[in-house]
Design goal:
It contains 3 helices and 6 strands, in the order βββαβαβαβ. The chain is an alpha/beta fold and 138 residues long. It has a 6-stranded mixed β-sheet with strand order 1-2-3-4-5-6. Helix 1 packs parallel to helix 2. The N terminus is likely disordered.
């Protein structure tokens, strides 16, 4: 069910359909045609990119519901899954493990996972965990 919510992060392209499942408070999934040509294997050009915007901490307490959202998105086999971390203040080891799991799943189906706009704190956490060489960060 699309919703127009006043608190949406800035920078979403006009015409983007926003889907906010009520059980995923603090997360927005957006669906639009894939504007990038970045995938690990050829994919159907009509497969949409899926963007998930995170606006809360990614820690052990939120991994279950966040993981459910990402696995639901990965089930659609998009060519590109983008996780916008601009509004995410913190990430822990449990969330990094879940992101690696989703990355492997996307890669195995010919898709790509991208972490977009992480804060300097999150970027440093990813570097310390040595996953910045595995996960695509932009």
């Amino acid at each position: 069910m699309p919703s127009a919510r006043a608190g949406l992060p800035a920078g979403l392209p006009s015409g983007t359909e926003v889907i906010e499942p009520s059980q995923f408070r603090g997360m927005f999934a957006t669906w639009r045609p894939n504007p990038w040509n970045m995938q690990s294997a050829p994919a159907d050009p009509e497969t949409p990119a899926i963007e998930v915007v995170i606006t809360e901490e990614l820690d052990a307490a939120s991994v279950a519901r966040f993981g459910a959202l990402l696995h639901e998105a990965a089930d659609l086999q998009p060519s590109h899954l983008v996780i916008d971390l601009a509004g995410c203040p913190f990430i822990d080891a449990a969330a990094i493990g879940m992101l690696l799991d989703v990355h492997r799943r996307m890669w195995s189906t010919g898709g790509r996972l991208t972490l977009r706009s992480p804060s300097p704190r999150i970027t440093r956490t990813l570097q310390l965990a040595r996953v910045d060489h595995v996960l695509h960060v932009s």
